[in-house]
């Protein structure tokens, strides 16, 4: 039985490995992220193959990969929310984050999510281009300050300062929305 299981796993890796990695690479920022997600997919696959048969291996692998990519994007969004809303009491932001990051899709949660992202992008448009660009590269495209510095030729300390001003502006600009959402 273990040989049959190993054979099934090896066959799946040979049949889907290269294309699955390409699929993931198109949807994440770096090759390292893609490889991490692929490794998670293979780990989950090997654990499941041992307990139950999978009828459509390819469909299952791509579905798990999509879910892992979505999880990665959610974690990035949660970090963005942490940066924007720092309260005196750490628990004050958890309700807001939970509400925005919930998987429930009710008309209310969809409206609040849409409103939040609209307000965020409107506030970003108010920033000087240099501050806006650093914020987007760092928070939304997951670039490091060093990578941005190498791409633009701007000193890392200058980039850090620009991002700081952007975060301060965004916190101030989104504070009213935050208060309105969390008071209910």
What is the fold's blueprint, element by element?
Blueprint: H1 2-25, H2 31-51, H3 57-84, H4 94-101, H5 107-126, H6 129-140, H7 145-152, H8 156-182
* Category by helix and strand content: mainly alpha
Mean pLDDT: 79
Tell me the Rg in angstroms.
21 Å
* Poorly predicted segments: 88-95
Number of helices: 8
**N-to-C SSE series?**
HHHHHHHH
State the helical fraction: over 70%
- Report strand %: under 5%
The largest sheet, given as strand count, sense and whether it forms a barrel, is: none
Shape: elongated
How far is it from the N-terminal to the C-terminal residue, by CA?
56 Å
Overall strand count? 0
Report what the structure shows:
The structure is a single chain. The protein has 184 residues and is an all-alpha fold. The chain is 80% helix and 0% strand. The protein contains 8 helices and no strands. It has helices at residues 2-25, 31-51, 57-84, 94-101, 107-126, 129-140, 145-152, 156-182. α1 packs across α3, α5 (107-126) packs antiparallel against α8 (156-182) and α6 crosses α8 (156-182). The longest helix is centred in the middle third of the chain and has 28 residues, at 57-84. The chain is elongated and about 60 Å long. Residues 88-95 have low confidence and may be disordered.
